[in-house]
Amino acid sequence: MKYYFRTEKMSVGYQKQPLIENIEIGLEKGEILTLIGPNGAGKSTILKSIAKQISLTGGAVYLDEKCVNDMSGTALSKNMAVVLTEKLRTEMMTCEDVVETGRYPYTGRFGILSDPDRQVVREAMELVHVTDIKDRNFSRISDGQRQRVMLARCLCQEPEIILLDEPTSYLDVKYKLEFLSVLQEMKKRKKLTVIMSLHELDLAQRISDKILCIRGKSVDRYGSPEEIFEPGYLSELFHITDGSFDEGDGSMELSRAEGKAGVFVIAGGGDGRSIYRRLQRQGIPFATGILYKNDLDYPTAKALAVDVIAADGFEPVTEKEVDRARRSLETCERVICSKTQFGTLEHANRDLLEYARKCGKKVEISSRQK
User: Fold this and answer.
1) Angle at 213 between CA 8 and CA 299, to 5 degrees
2) Is 54 exposed, middle or buried (0-12, 13-18, 19+ CB in 10 A)?
3) What confidence tens digit (pLDDT) does each residue in 314-369 have?
């Protein structure tokens, strides 16, 4: 298969000493590849090597079947844009000045922007929402604003491929989503190919067409998010021993409070998660149920509760599960219920609440609807 971007037995490292060897990547035009792995694994080294900032220790990189090593700096700049972690020297430059430097591969030796060049600059700044700070000194804006200005600079190059090193690190939630939405929009509108490193695994899962996992001196896995995010794999890749990571929904939880459960939580439908996390913060071990295994509360319960009474989704709750829930509840000092009303399929939990009251348990109703 012919790929727009590919590597052939690429090895990267420093001073001719390979850090990661035999990297094989194949991307079609308009695909997004995310590099993930522990800190220091070599994600930035791979990006710098692709961008010719570091010499390869072996193999080759091809862009539209042209070897990147054979391309001139100007030719490469017209095809590839880069935002890495190094600080740009921008003394006395406004944000607009910085964005305009993205047009230099097109302006000739004198660097004079034409009217069409300035229109490209305006459109790029509008795309990433930095037009309102165009006249501000680049060195005096926030890290998040600086990251968006640098993306606008990249877009000004009108590249076919863009390399990004931890592009969302300094962005708040609003701008993380806006930033990634811009990448998806450029992917759709202009078939922009993106190679980036990310620490936010949940974002990598949502935006990537391909994911490359680095472990030790080699690529451990390469494939679609569905192939990478298998239960237990990322916990193994990142050596997670405290807390947990759920590959299904990308959620992370801290370590559960260990010991005998002193609280029983009746929950379901997503109402229990805040209760579970509050008890974990307070260091209180708890049990919970009866939850369906496809319930929104179940992943958090599985991570934080010392005992979870669960039933198969879309199946009636069995007497065995009811009996187990009652026995667990009987050993707890108090009960917290996340609901004031129960649906037609929640009769087991409604009966469990009544059972708690008959047993004389202290019952607390803690509901978002309360």
Assistant:
1) 155
2) middle
3) 888 999 999 999 999 999 999 999 988 888 888 999 999 999 999 999 999 986 54
Q: What are the Cα distances from residue 50, in Å, to 23, 68, 81, 282? A: 11, 8, 11, 48
d(CA 69, CA 214): 24
Q: Which amino acid appears at position 91 of this protein?
A: E
d(CA 147, CA 171): 8
Q: Are the beta carbons of 287 and 310 closer than 8 angstroms?
A: no
Give the residue ranges of DSSP H helices in 73-113: 73-79, 95-100, 104-107
What Å distances lie between residue 164 and 47, 77, 150, 167, CA to CA? 8, 15, 10, 6
| CA 2 to centroid of chain Cα atoms | 29
Question: In angstroms, how far is CA 21 from the centroid of its own chain?
Answer: 25
CA distance 178 to 88: 23
Spatial CB neighbours of 359, under 8 Å, sequence gap ≥ 6: 329, 330
Asked whether the predicted pLDDT for residue 300 surpasses 90, the reply is: yes
CB burial of residue 74 (10 Å; 0-12, 13-18, 19+): exposed
φ/ψ (deg, to 5) at 70: -90, -5
User: Is there a contact between 183 and 194 (Cβ–Cβ < 8 Å)?
Assistant: yes
DSSP string, 186-230: HHHHH--EEEEE-S-HHHHHHH-SEEEEEETTEEEEEE-HHHH--
Between helix 143-156 and helix 173-190 the angle, nearest 10°, is 10
Side chain identity at residue 14, one-letter code: Y
Distances (CA, A) of 6 to 23, 25, 67: 10, 5, 10
Calculate the alpha carbon distances from 98 to 90, 105, 146, 159 in Å: 7, 14, 10, 17
Pick from 155-159, 183-187, 194-198, 245-249 the range whose average pLDDT is largest: 194-198
Query: Directed axis angle between helix 115-127 and helix 143-156, to 10°?
Result: 140
Q: Which residues of 276-299 are buried (b: 16+ CB within 10 A; e: fewer)?
A: beebbeeeebbbbbbbbeebbbbb
